[in-house]
Amino acid sequence: MMIDETPSSLPTPEFSRPLNVESLKIGKSEQTLEATPDECAQLAQRFDLLTLDHLSANVQLNRKGAGDSIRVFVSGRLNAGITQSCVITLDPVSSEIEADFNAAFDSEAEDIKSDCDFDISNDDIAEPIIDGSIDLGELVAQYLAVEIDPFPRKEGADGSGMTLESANTETNPFSVLKKLKSE
User: Fold this and answer.
1) Quick one: 13 and 65 in the same domain?
2) Which of the four, 3, 7, 69, 141, has the lowest number of CB atoms within 10 Å?
3) 133 alpha-carbon distance from chain centroid
């Protein structure tokens, strides 16, 4: 059984903001993107977050070329409020993410990532413009994913699985032994 991986068969991203590059004026322009509450909830599920309170981005675009030779340079700054589970206590950990990002898209670029057996991390490589458009929302979502702390910790959590505050209270597991010893 062969899976069709053409762009039309791929699922629509949770935060999709497709931009037809032909409609983009040559030169510089700006856009502001903001995720809806429903999109935030879907992205939170995708990235295994407790909540994604907000996600927005200010994006600067610079289109060069025309016809079959279009190149679009994208730079921007994203802002997001997230809540994750502490890897030690499982308590909620809230954080604010602000990050800059850059990308390039080219109508003549081939999707070389699918043809390579090695990691491509060269910033000079442009992503292909597929079916005449780029998805700015998915670009922002991907950069958000990179910025999420993979091991969030609640302030004061130590490696024993308890917060430092709870280790000093009478409810810790050793308080029972201390009482037995004193009796």
Assistant:
1) yes
2) 3
3) 20
Q: Are residues 83 and 101 in the same domain?
A: yes
Q: Is 130 helix (H, G, I), strand (E, B) or coil?
A: strand
Residues 19-64: pLDDT tens digits? 999 999 999 999 999 999 999 999 999 999 999 999 999 999 999 9
Neighbouring CB atoms inside 10 A of 130's CB total: 17
Percent of the chain with pLDDT strictly greater than 90: 61
CB within 8 Å of 70: residues ≥ 6 apart: 21, 22, 63, 64, 106, 107, 129
Q: Which residues, at least 6 apart from 157, have a Cβ–Cβ distance to it below 8 Å?
A: 86, 88, 89, 91, 163, 164
What is the SS3 assignment for 109?
coil
The token pair that represents 62 in the structure block: 């610079």
130 and 162 both lie in a single domain: no
The contacts of residue 47 (CB under 8 Å, 6+ apart) are: 144, 145, 148
